[in-house]
Each structure stands twice: as structure tokens, then as C-alpha cells.
């Protein structure tokens, strides 16, 4: 499964991170299995409200439910992760295989209906799972997925995919919306407190370690026409902002898109930031684009490469995820800069 993605620059269209192939479906069953990503202790006796739910989603749309949603279908991975962190197991998910590969923060239980790709879900499979709420990721109130699902008699909660103006706040806002819809606001508050404490503790560890180099650039990539294309996570990216919250400096200051904070480059374009510590995804895609780095003379002569300051993050860290993915990102920074 390829997750090759391109990011917009000014005036360009952002191509969202969509999987390329649809997956099959499985029977949802009468009830959802218990989440397995959070420990049994965490998910035992989670306080859940029982009264009617009335909330406003990321695009000012009113969402009303007779009671908190229990059978949720989720069409984007951050929101899948969020539901599991809230101890709610989705009955249907878009691209189960992709989620399992790219997001290791929370584990999907068995028996979840796979409704195909995130960009074009199989609506027959989606509604056969009998959800009482569908959670989607959108970018405007007029997104095609919202329009399409509005034709059906199931409430839709639309969450904002990203916001480079404040990616950490947007991540938490999305998590909180899902908590409201599922009656898990107490659980959400506890998780956010844990995240903030995790961040503060990690910042202290890095400060105490006083690393000699604190500038960094995080990137991922793919093969494009036989060449390695790179995507630096610049100002406004979740990875970049978490690094700066830890007291580090994101050295990629080139042009980025206004939603994800992502730039575009080739290997030669990394020369201006090559003295910074270079970080990249450790998740393996169909194409081993990292093999192309070692073959490039410009890459081989970057100061960070010469000095051994290039590091792959652990696999299955979803860089567009929720609080638990953010904690994994934070841990990766600590492992690199506080040793």
C-alpha cells in the first residue's frame, strides 16, 4: 500500500494523504469489540454520559444525538486513533490495513468493518455496519464527503483535518469533539492532562541533556520518476511544532502549505539545512525511498550525514495523529536529543 502524498505550496491544491487501493470488508457483528490500544485498566469503567448530545462541529454544523454515540464509523486515521484512545471501538473504519501500518498508537480490535479507501469509502459497507454516528475529516463545510453523507439518515461529525496556525490545538479540539459525541469528556480531559505532562517532562529531559545540536528538520519522501522527492515538515506541522515545544528549532523555513505546514524539496534542496539534525519516518512504504539517499553525493556530504546525526523515527508513528501519536513523536525526540 502506498501512501505517497504531495503537499501544496502557495496557490496549489493540497492532495490529501489517500491510500491508493480499496480494501475488503468484514462483518461488523452486533456489537463492537473492546479497544485493545489502551490498557484494560484505562478502559475499565470509563465514565460515560448518558443524556442527549448537542454540539457544534469544526465547521459550525449542529450535531444532535439522543444519547452518546456507541456505534461509530470513522473515515480518517487520526479520528480512529482518537476513538480508541477514548475507549470507543469503531464498528467501521476506512483502510484498516493502512491504519495498522501507519498508526501504532492504538490497536484496532478484530471484527471492525473495513469500508475501503479514505477518499472513496464503500457506502454500502459503511451503512451495513449500522453506525449511529459517522466521523469524517474535512477542510470546508462544503467538502464532497459531507455532501454525500448528508443524503443518508445518520448524523455526521465533521472534524478539521489540520490547521497550520496551531496544529497542537487543532489536534486537541478534534479529540474533544469526538469525546463530546461519545460521552467521554472525562476520559478526554484525563488524556489531555497526560499529554501535557508528557510534553513538560520531555522538555525537561532535553533541557537537562543540553544537546550540542538543537536544530532539526523532519521529512518523509517517495520515489517520483526515479528520483527521491522529499517533504519537509515545516512551520505549522504537528511534528515541527511539537519539536519546538520541546525547546528545539525547526530549521525548515521554506514555503509550506497553510493546512499541514508541509513543504516540497529534493535531496539537493536539503543543502541549506544540512547542518541540522535530519529526522525522517521509519515506516516502510512500498518504495524504499531512503535507499536513494545513500546513493546521492549531496546527501552524503551534508554535515548531519557526515557526523552521524540522521535518525529514523520508530515505525508506525502517525505524524497527523491524536494525543497518543503526539506522545510517540515526543518520545522519539527525547530518544534522539536527550541521550
Automatic annotation (TrEMBL):
Keyword Transferase: no
Pfam families attached to this UniProt entry: Peripla_BP_2
Alphabetic keyword roster: Signal, Transport
Membrane-spanning intervals of the chain: none
Localization per record: Cell envelope
Keyword Transit peptide set for record: no
GO terms classed as biological process: iron coordination entity transport
Segment forming the signal sequence: 1-21
GO cellular component: outer membrane-bounded periplasmic space
Limits of the Fe/B12 periplasmic-binding domain: 71-339
PANTHER family listed in its UniProt record: IRON III DICITRATE-BINDING PERIPLASMIC PROTEIN, IRON(3+)-HYDROXAMATE-BINDING PROTEIN FHUD
Family to which the UniProt record says this protein belongs: Belongs to the bacterial solute-binding protein 8 family.
Protein name as annotated: Iron complex transport system substrate-binding protein
Organism field: Xylanimonas ulmi
Amino acid at each position: 500500500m502506498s501512501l505517497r502524498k504531495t503537499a501544496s505550496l502557495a496557490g496549489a491544491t493540497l492532495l490529501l494523504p489517500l491510500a491508493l487501493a480499496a480494501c475488503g470488508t468484514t462483518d461488523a457483528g452486533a456489537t463492537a469489540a473492546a479497544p485493545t490500544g489502551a490498557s484494560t485498566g484505562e478502559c475499565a469503567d470509563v465514565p460515560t454520559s448518558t443524556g442527549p448530545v448537542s454540539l457544534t462541529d469544526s465547521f459550525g454544523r449542529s450535531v444532535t444525538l439522543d444519547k452518546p454515540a456507541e456505534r461509530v464509523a470513522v473515515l480518517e486515521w487520526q479520528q480512529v486513533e482518537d476513538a480508541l484512545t477514548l475507549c470507543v471501538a469503531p464498528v467501521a473504519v476506512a483502510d484498516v490495513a493502512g491504519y495498522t501500518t501507519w498508526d501504532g498508537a492504538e490497536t484496532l480490535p478484530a471484527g471492525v468493518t473495513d469500508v475501503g479507501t479514505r477518499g472513496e469509502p464503500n457506502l454500502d459497507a459503511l451503512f451495513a455496519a449500522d453506525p449511529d454516528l459517522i466521523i469524517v475529516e474535512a477542510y470546508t463545510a462544503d467538502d464532497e464527503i459531507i455532501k454525500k453523507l448528508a443524503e443518508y439518515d445518520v448524523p455526521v461529525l465533521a472534524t478539521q483535518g489540520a490547521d497550520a496556525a496551531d496544529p497542537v490545538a487543532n489536534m486537541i479540539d478534534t479529540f474533544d469533539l469526538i469525546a463530546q459525541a461519545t460521552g467521554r469528556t472525562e476520559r478526554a480531559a484525563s488524556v489531555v492532562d497526560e499529554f501535557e505532562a508528557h510534553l513538560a517532562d520531555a522538555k525537561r529531559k532535553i533541557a537537562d541533556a543540553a544537546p550540542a545540536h538543537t536544530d532539526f528538520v523532519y521529512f518523509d519522501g517517495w520515489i517520483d520518476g526515479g528520483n527521491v522527492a522529499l517533504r519537509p515538515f515545516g512551520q505549522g506541522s504537528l511534528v515541527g511544532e511539537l519539536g519546538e515545544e520541546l525547546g528545539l528549532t525547526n530549521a525548515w523555513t521554506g514555503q509550506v502549505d497553510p493546512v499541514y505546514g508541509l513543504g516540497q524539496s529534493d535531496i539537493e534542496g536539503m543543502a541549506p539545512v544540512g547542518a541540522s539534525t535530519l529526522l525522517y519516518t521509519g515506516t516502510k512504504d512500498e518504495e524504499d525511498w531512503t535507499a536513494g539517499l545513500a546513493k546521492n553525493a549531496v546527501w552524503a556530504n551534508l554535515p548531519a550525514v557526515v557526523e552521524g546525526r540522521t535518525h529514523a523515527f520508530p515505525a508506525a508513528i502517525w505524524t497527523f495523529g491524536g494525543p497518543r501519536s503526539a506522545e510517540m513523536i515526543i518520545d522519539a525526540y527525547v530518544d534522539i536529543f536527550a541521550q
